[in-house]
Every structure is written in structure tokens, then in C-alpha cells.
Amino acid sequence: MRTQCPECDSWINVPRSLELWDTFSCPRCHTELQLIDDNPVEVDYADTDDDDDFDFDDDDDDDYY
Ligand SMILES: [Zn+2]
């Protein structure tokens, strides 16, 4: 299976063992990609979980005596 990288347009050999939604990186530009369809093979940018939405305001300032 071969497909083109959406980032650098190079041809990538996709191993048959790769399953749908598996992620891999482009050997040329190292962009994280994800197999979104396997017939025909289609890849897209992988979902990267880097939203740092941690708003933990957990300081227990008990200011009463
Ligand atoms: Zn690439």
C-alpha cells in the first residue's frame, strides 16, 4: 500500500499491518499521520492530544482562624 504524505507529498509505504486509525509518522518530514481509510489508502494528520486545558485552581487557602 502506498500513499502520499499530505505534508511533503512524498510517497509512503504503508505497512499492511497498519490498521484503520493507527498513527505513524512520515519518514521524510516526521509529521504524525493517521490511516483514515484503507481502500483506497488515505491518510490525514493525526489527532494530537496537546490541549493543555488544565485549570486546576486547587489551592485550599483557608484563611479563617
Ligand atoms: Zn511527509
Describe the structure.
By secondary structure, this protein is mostly beta strands. It contains no helices and five strands. The protein is elongated and about 70 Å long. Strand 3 (23-25) and strand 4 form a beta hairpin. The mean pLDDT is 86. The termini are far apart. 5% of the residues are buried. It has strands at 2-4, 11-13, 23-25, 32-38, 41-45. Bound molecules: zinc ion. Residues 5, 7-8, 10, 26, 28-29, 31 line the site of zinc ion (ZN).
Structural class: mainly beta
Q: How many β strands by DSSP? A: 5
Largest sheet properties: 3 strands, antiparallel
Which ligands accompany this protein? zinc ion
Helix content: under 10%
* Strands side by side in the biggest sheet: 3-4-5
Strand content: 25-35%
Along the chain, the helix and strand elements come as EEEEE
Taking all residues together, what is the mean pLDDT? 86
Number of helices: 0
Rg, please? 20 Å
Write the layout of secondary structure elements.
Elements: E1 2-4, E2 11-13, E3 23-25, E4 32-38, E5 41-45
This protein binds zinc ion.
Features:
mainly beta, 0% helix, binds zinc ion, three-stranded antiparallel sheet, 65 residues, two-stranded antiparallel ribbon
Brief characterization of the structure:
With 65 residues, this protein is an all-beta fold. Helix content is 0%, strand content 32%.
